[in-house]
Design brief:
Layout (H helix, E strand, L loop, with lengths): L13 H6 L3 H10 L11 H8 L2 H9 L3 H12 L6 H9 L5 H16 L3 E2 L6 E2 L1 H7 L15 H4 L5 H10 L8 H13 L1 H9 L3 H10 L5 E3 L6 H8 L4 E4 L2 E3 L2 H7 L17 E4 L2 H24 L16 H11 L3 H13 L3 E3 L7 E3 L1 H7 L3 H14 L29 H13 L5 E3 L3 H9 L37 H16 L2 E2 L2 E2 L1 H7 L33 H15 L11 E3 L3 E4 L5 H10 L1 E4 L4 E4 L2 H9 L4 H11 L6 H13 L4 E3 L3 E4 L3 H9 L9 E4 L2 E4 L3 H10 L5 E2 L34 H19 L5 E2 L2 E2 L9 H14 L3 E6 L5 E12 L2 E6 L4 E6 L3 E5 L7
Helix pairs in contact: 2-32, 5-7, 5-8, 10-11, 13-14, 17-18, 20-25, 21-23, 22-23, 24-25, 27-29
């Protein structure tokens, strides 16, 4: 018998079973089913009522692992109550299965812990709501593929027909239908007699049973069944349930299955196989390289949106065209571009600007983020990814209303995403150091830990006859296997890909800094001495302990530790480049922030990789001059930051562009062009490319345009000129590199997956409240009603003893009975949990009234321990 039940007597209800649990067992229940504590129930009766609601039971069943769910499914088709031996027989079969026998105590313990099963091993009961969900019915087949029992299938059958079946099966006739049905069920459960009966069956009849044995158990028959079906119907091996429909009784199916409720019991989780093993140093170096590339990608993404990014769709999100442009700019695929966009959004670095013409842009937090050390910047991205519920893998798919899901748009939140990411990385942490998992093994493990579609089975219909009732169809696929493309499996695959992109893993294996991000302990060497019975198994067959998600404080500590481990692996930023005669500059590594910013304006990036190649062009030099720098400034900058002499072609390019820069002036008329050299203006007017600008001469040195200044500037530059903008006062306007930023924005909040798991403090307080409320609800109260007591004695103690007992209860947190006389003279007995005693008053939580109240000490007649008040 489980230690959770009272040894003196078997519990008569789930409430009684929970009442016999200690505080640790109750805490385990509330931690595994946090919906039961929201809000805190007043007593155990309310807790049991809440635990039996359909929504709560469905939620609990959906979070069971495959074998625990198979155990619950077996109990749903077993007798109520069932013994441990009966349950073991349903799961292990007549021949027995050592793995099932070894795993059943754990699975049953899980069901008991979560209050889905109660009772001792001699009287196991599945809670009623779970039995209703998992029991077979024509509308909702059981995941086991079993049908109704003989008693259930014959409930509407005439007594005469029942007696005919009993006689044809070779059983003695009885005086009533109940005993006849019991006799028939006993025959089907008797392995010896049932085997003898089936030995007499025609081969064709056995084939019909074979098609129905693993479910669905229902079939279709004609009004005039074939002889092979008539033989089965006459002996009750098939029973009619409706006109034209028959069912294979549960007892018959179990005999044909060898006593097993499931075709393939899965007591042991599938191992996470190792595909390859790399040296840890190689894994860490690869992951660090990916981490640095991730930082560069996010910076490149947001730098491209410095002047205002793509427009926000009316329904929210990024258009498919803008996502494609982003992918081309980053030189990645569209799904990968969606990942980087969503990651920047989850980290609070990207948001919409909220303007009338709403566009996406970097947030002020991005500028602060850029100034942090590289390892800290990576840690912020990694933590945001680990805890975000937004799922970029869904981009491009369809929602329930057949609308396309867009990046940064609504409908991408999946509350299971953080838990799946954490679990996938925890499975990688359970592998030997440097080991990468085999493809498909991680999703397979997750499908075992949280099987999809395991509460209800597949479609209920399988013809027993084929053609128009004569051919038949093979058994349906296992309902427990679930679809290959279920959400958790897709999340697992996306997690593995995204972790590699982000540098949490390297070559598929979890890196040292990735392990620290989880708060996981350092792995033991595969050849280390085993520490326990489980460690005697091969490494990849050892159970992986679930790493609990960290609290915000613990996660902050783990993030800082991951950043410290990553920092030495990242390359140091350089303060120099190598200038070449072909108007290029080579950065042999990452550049320091000021150098990278200036060089990004002065030159265009031509190629990336281990070394970045920048190319100087007339347009890029003009761009640098537009920021207010002179030719002398650019020469000095290049000389200071180049390890090679400044090539003569580059110096000539800078001087040539600077000589022509600002020779033309553009201002607002709508726009105008002025130049001291009227020959240049004549050249512009004569150029056919200027036709679209609407130019006309106002004076020998001034042209007016119909377009705005910005369009005029771009048009003249496209014609090969180098105009400069000027202010209303005639001064040259300097185009600063100030970028467009959104107002301050906070990162999107993850969508919770149900109520949060309560912490230890809340659990302790909730258990105290439930215990005290249960005591108030179950303790004898005489003939008291509400606050008034018509009979029964009030606790009576001396004033000094009353005060001392109340003060002690404040320290211990114990509940007390008090006698209380109110201002009208009405006496009552109440159960209170004192919180504070001062100034002649006691403040306490009154479990009778379910609220906090304050009582004058002089009106309290006395106090008593709850045990002292019981009969």
């Amino acid at each position: 018998m489980s230690t959770e039940e009272k040894p003196a007597a078997a519990p008569r209800s789930l409430a009684e079973a929970l009442r016999g649990r200690d505080d640790a067992a109750l805490a385990a229940l509330l931690r595994s089913r946090p919906d039961l504590i929201t809000p805190v129930p007043t007593d155990l009766t309310q807790l049991v009522t809440r635990a039996g609601t359909r929504a709560s039971v469905v939620r609990a069943l959906e979070r069971l692992d495959r074998f625990a769910l198979q155990t619950a499914q077996a109990l749903a088709v077993a007798a109520d109550p069932a013994t441990y031996e009966e349950l073991l027989g349903l799961l292990a079969g007549d021949d027995g299965d050592p793995a099932v026998a070894a795993a059943l105590p754990r699975a049953l313990g899980t069901l008991r812990e979560q209050a889905l099963v109660w009772g001792g091993d001699d009287r196991l009961r599945l809670v009623r709501t779970a039995r209703e969900l998992l029991s077979p019915s024509p509308q909702h087949p059981s995941p086991t593929g079993l049908g109704p029992s003989v008693r259930e299938a014959t409930a509407g059958m005439s007594p005469g027909r029942i007696q005919e079946i009993v006689a044809t099966a070779g059983l003695p006739s009885t005086h009533d239908s109940v005993s006849a049905v019991a006799s028939l069920a006993a025959l089907f459960r008797d392995r010896t007699r049932m085997a003898a009966l089936l030995d007499e069956a025609p081969h064709e009849s056995v084939e019909v049973l074979d098609r129905l044995v693993w479910g669905p158990p229902y079939g279709q028959v004609t009004a005039d069944p074939a002889p092979r079906l008539r033989w089965l119907l006459d002996r009750g091996l098939l029973l009619p349930t409706a006109p034209g429909t028959v069912v294979l009784p549960r007892e018959v199916a179990l005999h044909l299955r060898g006593g097993r409720a499931h075709r393939v019991p899965e007591p042991v989780p599938p191992p996470v196989e190792t595909a390859a093993t790399h040296r840890p140093q190689v894994v860490d170096a690869t992951a660090a390289g990916q981490a640095y590339a991730a930082l560069a990608t996010v910076e490149e993404l947001l730098k491209g949106w410095d002047e205002g990014g793509p427009a926000v769709l009316r329904a929210g999100g990024l258009s498919a065209r803008d996502l494609k442009r982003t992918a081309v700019a980053l030189d990645v695929t569209e799904p990968v571009a969606a990942f980087w966009v969503e990651l920047a959004y989850a980290a609070g670095l990207l948001a919409s600007d909220g303007e009338a013409d709403e566009r996406y842009a970097a947030t002020p937090a991005y500028d602060e983020w850029r100034e942090r050390p590289a390892a800290e910047r990576w840690a912020r991205l990694a933590t945001a990814w680990l805890t975000a519920t937004r799922t970029s893998g869904l981009v491009g798919g369809r929602d329930a209303k057949d609308r396309t899901l867009s990046a940064l748009g609504p409908g991408l939140d999946r509350s299971a995403a953080p838990e799946v990411r954490h679990r996938v990385l925890a499975l990688l942490a359970g592998l030997p150091e440097g080991a990468a998992p085999a493809p498909g093994s991680v999703p397979a493990r997750l499908r075992w830990e949280r099987p999809p579609g395991g509460i209800r089975g597949g479609p209920a219909g399988s013809p027993a006859e084929g053609g128009r009732g004569e051919g038949g169809r093979g058994p349906a696929g296992s309902a427990q296997a679930g679809g290959e493309d279920d959400l958790r499996s897709r999340l697992a695959r996306w997690t593995l890909d995204e972790a590699e992109l982000l540098g949490i893993t390297g070559r598929g294996a979890l890196s040292t800094h990735g392990r620290a991000l989880l708060g996981a302990p350092a792995p033991r060497h595969p050849e280390a001495e085993p520490e326990g019975p489980g460690d005697k198994l091969p490494v990849h067959h050892r159970p992986v302990p679930p790493l609990a998600p960290l609290s915000p404080t613990e996660q902050a500590t783990a993030t800082a530790a991951a950043a410290r481990l990553l920092a030495p692996l990242l390359p140091e930023p350089l303060d120099h480049v190598l200038l070449q005669a072909d108007l290029t500059a080579v950065a042999p590594g990452p550049l320091q922030r000021p150098l990278a910013d200036v060089l990004g304006v002065l030159a265009d990036v031509e190629s990336k990789g281990g070394a970045t190649v920048y190319r100087f062009t007339p347009g890029s030099v003009r761009r640098a001059l537009d920021t207010g720098r002179t030719a002398a400034d650019l020469h000095a900058f290049l000389a200071a930051h180049s390890r090679t002499p400044v090539p003569q072609p580059l110096a000539y390019l800078i001087d040539d562009v600077a000589r022509r820069h600002g020779h033309l002036r553009v201002g607002a008329a709508s726009a105008y062009v002025r130049c001291d050299d009227d020959a240049v203006l004549n050249e512009i007017l004569a150029d056919k490319r200027a036709a679209g600008l609407g130019l006309r001469r106002l004076a020998p040195t001034v042209l007016a345009a119909q377009t705005g200044p910005a369009v005029l500037l771009e048009g003249l530059r496209a014609m090969g000129f180098a105009p400069a903008a000027e202010s209303a006062e005639g001064d040259v306007l300097i185009a600063r590199a100030d970028a467009h930023r959104t107002p301050p924005r906070s990162a999107p909040e993850p969508v919770p997956d149900g109520p949060p798991v309560p912490d230890d403090t809340l659990l302790a307080a909730a258990i105290r409240a439930v215990r005290a409320g249960d005591l108030a609800a179950t303790a004898p109260r005489g003939t008291s009603t509400g606050d008034r007591t018509a009979g029964g004695e009030l606790p009576r103690t001396a004033a000094a003893e009353t005060l001392a007992t109340l003060q002690a209860a404040v320290l211990t947190g114990e509940a007390l009975w008090i006698g209380y006389v109110n201002a009208e003279g009405a006496a009552s007995r109440r159960v209170i949990a004192p919180v504070r005693v001062e100034g002649g008053f006691v403040t306490a939580y009154d479990h009778t009234a379910e609220e906090v109240r304050t009582y004058p000490l002089h009106r309290i007649t006395g106090v008593a321990e709850p045990a002292d008040d019981e009969d």
